[in-house]
Amino acid sequence: MEIFMIWDQHMHTHFSGDSQAAPESMLSAAAEKNLPGVCFTDHFDYDYPKEPDLFMLDFSRSLRETERLREIFRGRLSVCWGVELGLQPHIADINREVAAQYPFDFIIGSSHVVHGADPYYGSFFEGRSEEEACREYFEAVLENLGTDVDFDVYGHLDYIVRYGPGKNRFYSYKKYADLLDEILRTLICRGKGIEVNTGGYRSGLGQPNPADFVLTRYRQLGGEIVTVGSDAHAPEHVAWEFDTAAALLLSCGFTHHTVFCQRKPHFLPL
Ligand SMILES: [Zn+2]
Ligand SMILES: [Zn+2]
Hints:
By secondary structure, the protein is an alpha/beta fold. The protein is 32% helix and 17% strand. The strands form two sheets. It has a six-stranded parallel beta sheet. Strands 7-8 form a two-stranded antiparallel sheet. Helix 4 (130-145) runs parallel beside helix 5 (177-189). The chain is globular. The protein starts with 22 loop residues before the first helix and ends with a strand. The mean pLDDT is 96. The site of one zinc ion has 4 residues, from loops.
């Protein structure tokens, strides 16, 4: 039996438009894997293109259900309540209000929509090189960091490499060092962390998002806040490749991972 000491702080349930999972089934999966704790991070992606209602979140119902399940799992599994905010510069005010309005334990800020399009769809890459598309993605991350939206970690920082025609075959730090360095320095300067999203392993990258070289650089620049999340949308994906991720974090120079409760970071040894 594997014993995980890492919290899974990125998972979705039927409160997200792209998941059918019952929240209880996610917690049962986590308890079976002996996780110490989890955080629900359902989507709130305001102004999502073409399907504006797809990632709207019923905050009150999600919170009530989390509180109910927290009691059921008490003593077996810690259950936190968070959100994955889809960041776009023009909706920074709305996201900031959401962050202030609800008693989240943890907020992931993520770039899904870049200048009106999600790289999840192949059309994002049409008519230009993969490198141009990636540069636009990282530039959009910087635009979001230029707003004062409130979050704890930036989610799956190089999400775009999951979906490009070459995936991560031609991806290197050097290629985007100007943008990635500025992103990482800005995050560190603002006291924000990044997450290790093991969905990258599920996407066949052989790497999490972001890749090891981004994690290493974040550490070199003085970054210390890393959370780990499976981005599970179904119970079988909970704690996906967490043993691999823990070993990777150690090799990148980290000794701890971070758990957020009531928006406060706690550093737990890997
Ligand atoms: Zn995401
Ligand atoms: Zn997610």
